[in-house]
Design brief:
This protein has a single domain (about 10-20, about 35-145, about 175-180), classed as Lipid/polyisoprenoid-binding, YceI-like (Lipocalin). About 5% of the residues lie in helices and about 55% in strands. It starts with 9 loop residues before the first strand and ends with a strand. An 8-stranded antiparallel barrel has the order 1-4-5-7-8-9-10-11. The protein is mostly beta strands.
């Protein structure tokens, strides 16, 4: 599989000010809670055969932000991320397949010291040169994980039945990468 139009071989760095790593999880069985991680670093190494390209990403768990300081403090604590013991989550790609726009990005996701394989359904959004001359490539992706698979087992029973926090977590990515300097 060849490189999509406009993408060039080399090391591309994540543009953190134009990217977002977010999540959604069911709350109390009736709504969804959303949040982001504000400190994310990633490098994409693009090769002539796009299937051999790689992505390495690191997320600082203390950058968790759900726009609720009490919830954020709880999630950063030992019941969930335990940021003192596990300050980072990581993703390391293991494969890429697809066509010129839609891909499956496979890789190893590590949360709380537990590594599991995941697959992101990923869309290549194109390449553009910004007004300052930087070449950027955009991608979006999504996967669903079981939080219990990663040791995130905290929950509370609801009076009406069910539990406070759903097991399935949707991870969403909107990423802009900047091309290597020529």
């Amino acid at each position: 599989m060849t490189i999509p139009n406009g993408l060039t071989a080399g090391t591309w760095n994540l543009d953190t000010s134009h990217s977002e790593v977010g999540f959604t999880v069911r709350h109390a069985g009736i709504s969804k809670v959303r949040g982001t991680f504000d400190d994310v670093h990633a490098v994409m190494n693009v090769t002539e055969n796009i299937e051999n390209s790689t992505i390495e990403a690191t997320v600082k768990t203390d950058s968790f932000n759900s726009k609720d300081s009490n919830r954020d403090a709880h999630v950063k604590g030992p019941d969930f991320f335990d940021i003192a013991q596990f300050p980072e989550m990581t993703f390391s790609s293991t494969g890429l397949s697809g066509d010129d726009e839609n891909y499956v990005l496979a890789g190893d996701l590590t949360i709380r010291g537990v590594t599991k394989p995941v697959e992101f359904n990923t869309e290549f959004n194109g390449v553009a040169v910004d007004p300052f001359g930087a070449t950027r490539a955009g991608f979006s992706g999504q996967t669903v994980i079981s939080r219990k698979d990663f040791g995130l087992t905290y929950n509370a029973a609801l009076e009406a039945g069910g539990v406070l926090i759903g097991d399935k977590v949707t991870i969403s990515l909107d990423a802009a990468f900047v091309a290597p300097a020529e």
